[in-house]
Amino acid sequence: MQKKQLIMEKSLELFAKQGFEATSIQQITDHCGISKGAFYLSFKSKDELILTLIDHFMMQITSDIDYLVKNSPTDKLLYEFYYTIHTYFHKHMNFARIFMKEQMQTVNQDLIVKMHEYDKLHEKVILHMIERLYGDEVKQTKYDLIFCIKSFMTMYAELFLFEDIQLDFQLLSQSLVEKTNLLAKHTTIPFISQDYALLINHGKNLEITKEQLLKIMEEKIGEMEDSLEKDSLLLLKQELTTPSLGRAIVSGLIKNILHHPHCKWVAYLLRNYYQTMKGQNNKE
Q1: What one-character DSSP code corresponds to residue 224?
Q2: Are residues 114 and 164 located together in one domain of the fold?
Q3: Above 80 in pLDDT, residue 110?
């Protein structure tokens, strides 16, 4: 196991028990069995470690639900959305516990900004899902539905995160699908106006330039061993620099890297990059 990964895994255990603020670097290094010098070779500070942990987990789930929302059949979409969210946080329970607690307690401004960014990204994904599922039927209430779905995501997660109750995630997902469909069909009095779309669009500040994307891809390529995924990422990097492939081939290459642990976020960024480019070309 690489030292950086060891520090992340062991610190997560301490953060889950004590919280971010109460855990010191000395405690982390003792728990890892390493020196402080070894810690600082991997992370400049405890804050950098915390932000790296947030990125590590949130990039994965953000990429997964974004792909799901854009590609799943509509008759299965809502169920798969809830099932994916809840099983992911159940699998990564230590992270989920501290993430939910720290959202309410933290005074770390960088952490607040980071959590807010991912929250806005998730709202954009949920809005896209709502528009796919219900279209103009929820034109006046779709922004209220975003908050209802976010509430379902967190309320029921508390049962297994803090109450230690064993849940049937299939039944939970079916139940939430029914509740969401009822709200979509019968809600008639909107509380949040369409002006809220302006707030959701703040999440676009995570969109990056082609140069930034190329740099991220280069870093990921350096971390990977020879594999189909690495070859696909190399081809995608070349395509960004010198476009020559058809859209179907590019989509296939992105699918090749989708489930590699180093590539989930790159796949998410590439999908959004090409979607933005397609939108710009259509306008022209």
Answers
A1: P
A2: yes
A3: no
